[in-house]
């Protein structure tokens, strides 16, 4: 009982301090998850030794790794990859060259382990993806090139880590069989989930079924010597299309993961640290410099293959702080690396997570639309000319695809003359059977009345509408009632919050 009571206190302290640290780092325009890591280092044996890792905290944070990687597979790796031969050559350089250089460093210090080298040498697609979205270049040529390279790098590194974590013939065969089973069975799992949906009316059962599948597949993977967290990554990737058609499931998984598991997981990264000493800090700094140096150099070389700016490619393909840390914790909790090895390598990745995004922003610059401060008295058409809408002939599946791609809470519907008819919200789509998404057209369902403003409306007018009505979208029309622009609440907030 004492262990349980102590764990409740520890988890409460960890969660609130983690969220406060995320908020503080966000306001400083730094990578958010670094804040909880620092909180963990301060609370744990690394500095104050106030919070102790025990079996309960370890179990909950290990679940955090599983759900984080599942969402990483579904969202960060969930794009349909259009990989070209140049991407394969590029990522091979960007993974193999750092592995070689980092291996030499660790051999010199007599702390070599491939289970350290691979996480340090790999690129983390998650932090890079979020950075590309922030800068508005995720769909541009350079953004796509960086994304494809990082995803290939991450997937191959994860498989290599899984193989070398066992490195026995029977275990390797088991791992390959599990990977084969996951990829061959991914479609079957989606069909099973769809079949279950046909028999249930309660949305919570669908959510519970997804959670159950993650747990059961993870158990099967562990039985066959495969890491359950890595399995969750692949499972999320294979279920990406299923989840895209069900935005309500994604929203609940995000809240479930990012509201509770993610902050606790990143705090736990710091809790596993050994006592911080000058020697540990020095080794971490050297590892950090060698890691980003080798990855940046590899990115410069591969930029010639990609035909893009060498410095941007070098910085972009050097991003750290996602799956790589998850792999290190998995290795530590499986007693495959020592706490000291874990501590200096995790600290090196933390340094990288802070420095590289700042350098990338400095090199790439701010998005053009955010170069000038927005005057609330200027016409909203001067800053937003967005005509992302759907028409009556499009299916609900097409509407959901646009909503998911843009991150909106609703989508405006127009007629053949481009006059607004209303909007369809995510909450409405939640009440419709996903099997009907291909059948039903947008105008087959009820449309909410959309707030219409004249073309001279100012930014402050739109903000006032959002505040007073809590509507997710407003439309601007010309004198004939034809749509000129759609102003989505989240989009306007991004314009009003410049990236520093």
TrEMBL record:
Keywords: Antiport, CBS domain, Ion transport, Membrane, Sodium, Sodium transport, Transmembrane, Transmembrane helix, Transport
GO molecular function: antiporter activity
Ranges that cross the membrane: 30-48, 55-75, 95-121, 142-163, 169-190, 255-274, 280-301, 343-360
GO cellular component: membrane
InterPro entries: Cation/H_exchanger_TM, CBS_dom, CBS_dom_sf, Na+/solute_symporter_sf
Pfam families: CBS, Na_H_Exchanger
Higher taxonomy: Archaea, Thermoproteota, Thermoprotei, Sulfolobales, Sulfolobaceae
Name the record gives this protein: Na(+)/H(+) antiporter
Subcellular location as annotated: Membrane
Occurrences of domain CBS (ranges): 383-442, 445-500
An annotated GO BP: proton transmembrane transport
Predominant location: membrane
Topology class, membrane: Multi-pass membrane protein
